[in-house]
Amino acid sequence: WSQVPLYLTQVAEINATTGRSLKWPTQFGLFDYDGTVHVSVEPDPTVFPTISSVRIRPLSYGIEPKVSDGKIRFSLSQPQRNVVVEVNGDVFNVVTLWTNEIEKDAISEQEASDDSSIVYFGPGYHDLKDPVDLKSGQTLYLASGAYLHAPAPTGISVQINNAEDVAVRGRGFMSAAMSIQNSTNVAVVGGFASTGGFLIAQSNNVHVSGWKSMTSHQWGDGMDLYCSQDVVVEQVFLRTSDDCFAIYQHRGYFYGDSSNITLRDSSLWADVAHPINIGTHGNPENPETMDGVTIQNLDILDHREPQVDYEGCIAFTVGDENLVTNVLVDDVRVEDFRWGMLLSLRVVFNKKYNTGAGRGLKNVVIKDLVYTSSGDHIVNTAVILGYSEDRSVDNVDFQGLTINGLHVWDKMTKPSWFQTSDSVPMILGSFANNVTF
Question: What is the CATH number of the domain that holds 91?
């Protein structure tokens, strides 16, 4: 056996009575492998004196552990499939294992010293006074075991501003955020772990693969996109203290339309707010459009948000004169979340965050969405709702929607006077037009 070090960090929970943010310890480990590996996890007997239940999540992976002599054993055979080992139903004191394929094109320190375009950090602790600032044509390489420490998780570890043809590679750890602004042709591909967020703003041709993050601080979003085009995010794991993955238009000094945004092959866990939130922020003075959003092959592991207005495992809260068009949600599996709502597709004017209503949400296909509930948690009714006759939700097509094993479709067996949406359950509100199942 080879021992995998575990690292202690925190995850968050909001007290629904006081609003206080509680912090809970959790652990994660990272390793690379090819082929099949056998894993043995031994929970601390002072924390778990007995093991009554074990789940390896995402449940869709179908990993059945064996428990004996206080040890949990299972096998992994697909690198980049990250797993959570949950014991006795405790969703905080878990072990999260982030895995990657064995790196085949590692850059050595000698190679980096011979190439002025490579910024290299070797194994060990690197105390950053300022963010690593990458310029056009540069490659940042983090060797396995490199730790970039920023003063706070709300700060920035690495920034790419006004640059093109930039790459970030390797296997390192960043204590704070990754930021890409006003840049083009950027690739962040490797096996990176972070306790900060990830910002992509007013940029195009961006590829992110292998990013893993856990946050516990206030407004601890996992990944936020603003006014960007041709972005692919894949094989990421985000457990966050605010929205896991959000796509917006104008905010602050970011302007412009968004198009061709893809999130795929990933796992999301929102201890606060939404796993996915799209469309909130925009520019009422010069309205913007978001066209072409693809969300594909995801596992949503959890969602906990007591505020009904901010619920939704998949939420479109289209405000600020935004128009969102041509959306595909395909092959998404939602596990038994603690508190929230499956879907919220709305055109809104939220006076806390908007200065105007959205223009509309149009042409949405939701295909092979599967949700399984235990019935033990707070699940509020899903909703599709427009704002007005000319600010509506139009053309939403559900294909292969499965709720607790029931295929929900317009030709299902039900009383003729029932709406198909009752079987979700879901409210089809005003100005929601041409919703089909």
Answer: 2.60.350.10
Beta-strand (E) ranges in 48-131?
54-57, 66-68, 71-76, 83-87, 95-100, 118-121, 124-127
What the block records as the tokens of 405 is 């094993």
Decide: helix, strand or coil at residue 116: coil
Question: What is the average per-residue pLDDT within 425-435?
Answer: 98
Q: Give the model confidence (pLDDT) of 331-369 as tens digits.
A: 999 999 999 999 999 999 999 999 999 999 999 999 999
Q: Dihedral, CA atoms, 174, 205, 301, 298, nearest 10 degrees?
A: -150
* Rounded distance between C-alpha atoms, residue 192 and residue 236, angstroms: 9
pLDDT beyond 90 at 82: yes
How many domains is the chain built from?
2
In a domain, 148, yes or no: no
- What the block records as the tokens of 290 is 């978001």
Q: Which residues pair with 316 in a beta bridge?
A: 278, 345
pTM (two decimals): 0.97
Last residue of a domain, one of 81, 100, 119: 100
Element (H, E) at 287: none
Domain final residue, candidates 47, 77, 100: 100
Residues 201 and 96 placed together within one structural domain of the fold:
no
Count CB neighbours of 328 within 10 A: 15
Range of the domain at 329: 197-436
pLDDT digits (tens, 9 = 90+) for 391-414: 999 999 999 999 999 999 999 999
